[in-house]
Amino acid sequence: MTARGFVIAAASSGAGKTVVTLGLLRALKRRGLDVRAAKSGPDYIDPAFHEAACGAPSVNLDAWAMTPQTLLARAAAQGGAFLVVEAAMGVLDAGRDGHGSAADLAALLGLPLVLVLDIAKTGQSALLPAVGLQALRPDLPVAGVILNRCGSEAHAEMALRPMRDVDIPVFGAIPRDRALSLPERHLGLVQAAETEGIESFLEGAADRLEAALDLDAMLAAAGPVAPASGSSNRLPPLGQRIAVARDAAFAFVYPHLLDDWHAQGAQILSFSPLDNKGPDQFADAVFLPGGYPELHAGRLANAGKFLGLTRRAADRGARIYGECGGYMALGDGMIDADGTRHEMLGLLPLVTSFAERRRTLGYRRLSPLPGAPWNGALMGHEFHYATIVEEGGAARLFRATDATGTPTPNMGLQIGRVAGSFAHIIAPG
Question: Which residues are known to be catalytic?
Answer without folding.
Answer: 324
